[in-house]
Write a structure and sequence with these properties.
By secondary structure, the chain is mainly beta. The chain is built from two helices and 20 strands. This is Secreted protein.
Length: 298
């Protein structure tokens, strides 16, 4: 076959192939576009975008997140005496953050906990105009502590919890994780816990307060609730956001003897629960240890 005939045959075959391909495409129809994904459900206050996708991550494990950073004025302090904690939250532009949203009556909640979870302090720092926060503290023993700053920048809608290590100089002997059971006593008050932490699933935690065998029915409001609960995971001190059920003045929430919360455990394991409550003008803290176990499949 000469060259001209070869070219003609090739062109004819190529045209036939395109015609066949076009016919198949018409029969099958166009490739469908990927179905539009529904928007993510709005995250509840304090849980953030991760929880909206079912990923119950905890806060406080990072010193920086989403462009914000926690910077302590000093990371080594003396133990056994009063000190002043000074810190700043740096914004994504590198400058100290000075605009915050108010949550539970405060712009920022400051928690200091020992690494062995035997000591817990909920402090109320004061912010200067330049964005520097200060708070008096007293670290009772030498050892490692974690400082948590729980806040929402004015430019954000989801809260942040940043954490930084603080070392109290001296001879340190860590203690074992306290085991408390479901009832603890503090300053003559007896508190009983019902409910459980379940990994990946919200659950109700209810604390009943009594004194001298009688239910306490006149709790004082504290941080826009009848109690404030912080939950920390043993091992890494992951910080859980916990939500009170109801609030003073809503017409449905009684001032005791029961104080209710909703919380989700991000994983199986041991957790320390620190409940702050106020009665007759004094704030007290009751600490519980609770184990979150995987639900049994039937």
């Amino acid at each position: 076959m000469n060259t001209a005939l070869k070219i003609t045959a090739f062109a004819t075959g190529l045209a036939a192939a395109f015609t066949a391909a076009y016919g198949v495409g018409r029969a099958v129809g166009p490739v469908p576009a990927r179905a539009a994904q529904p928007p993510a459900a709005h995250a509840a206050h304090g849980e953030g975008p991760a929880a909206a996708h079912g990923d119950h991550r905890v806060g406080g494990l990072q010193v920086a997140d989403r462009g914000y950073a926690l910077r302590l004025d000093r990371t080594v302090v003396p133990a056994g005496g009063p000190i002043e904690l000074r810190f700043q939250v740096l914004a994504p532009d590198g400058h100290p953050l000075t605009a915050y949203r108010t949550a539970h009556e405060k712009e920022l909640h400051l928690i200091v906990a020992s690494r062995d979870l035997t000591d817990f302090q909920h402090l109320h720092p004061v912010r200067a105009a330049d964005g520097t926060w200060t708070a008096p503290a007293d670290l009772p023993a030498a050892g490692d502590y974690r400082v948590f700053a729980d806040f929402t920048p004015a430019a954000e809608t989801d809260p942040l919890t940043l954490g930084a290590d603080l070392h109290a100089a001296g001879d340190h002997r860590p203690a074992a994780l306290p085991r408390t059971g479901r009832t603890v006593t503090v300053d003559g008050y007896t508190l009983t816990l019902t409910g459980d932490l379940t990994p990946g699933r919200p659950g109700r935690l209810a604390f009943t307060v009594s004194r001298d065998g009688r239910p306490v029915t006149d709790l004082d409001p504290y941080l826009a609730a009848y109690g404030h609960l912080v939950v920390l995971r043993a091992g890494d001190l992951g910080y859980l956001h916990v939500h009170p059920d109801g609030e003073p003045g809503d017409g449905a929430t009684a001032p005791g003897p029961e104080v209710d919360f909703t919380a989700t455990a991000p994983s199986p394991g041991d957790y320390r629960l620190f409940l702050d409550f106020r009665h007759q003008g004094t704030v007290r803290t009751a600490a519980f240890t609770l184990t979150a176990a995987e639900a049994h499949q039937h």
